[in-house]
Amino acid sequence: QVRLVESGGGVVQPGGSLRLSCKASGFIFNEHEMSWYRQALGKERELVARIIAGGITEYGASVQGRFTIFRDNPKNTVYLQMNSLKAEDTAVYYCKNGFGNWGQGTRVTVSS
């Protein structure tokens, strides 16, 4: 059974940082692309960052240079390091694997 469990969300002030984690199980983690998406209230879900099995990364334009996606294959975990957070980064962040499975999401609120 595939499971994706996100953690690390919370409330942070503008300019602050957070690191999200997504622990995966039920599939061969190191063979698959992993992605982070987010969905703000009233908006469509959008791609934040993607990392393929070989380590190549891709970022959404709005987070380029501020967010970093990386993976720890022995721990079956993908991370999203978020720096210089802005109010517009407020959203529920979801992890997704190459099969199209989603986690339950973790909420990030950027507010003073």
What do you see in this structure?
By secondary structure, this protein is an all-beta fold. Helices cover 0% and strands 49% of the residues. It has no helices and 10 strands. Strands 2-10-9-4-5-6 form a 6-stranded mixed beta sheet, with no helix packed on it. Strands 1-3-8-7 form a 4-stranded antiparallel beta sheet, with no helix packed on it. The N and C termini lie far apart (40 Å). The model has no long low-confidence stretch (mean pLDDT 96).
Number of DSSP-assigned strands:
10
Strand content: over 45%
Radius of gyration: 13 Å
- Coarse structural class: mainly beta
**Element string (H = helix, E = strand):** EEEEEEEEEE
Uncertain spans: none
Could you estimate the helical fraction of the residues in percent? Answer: under 10%
What is the helix tally?
A: 0
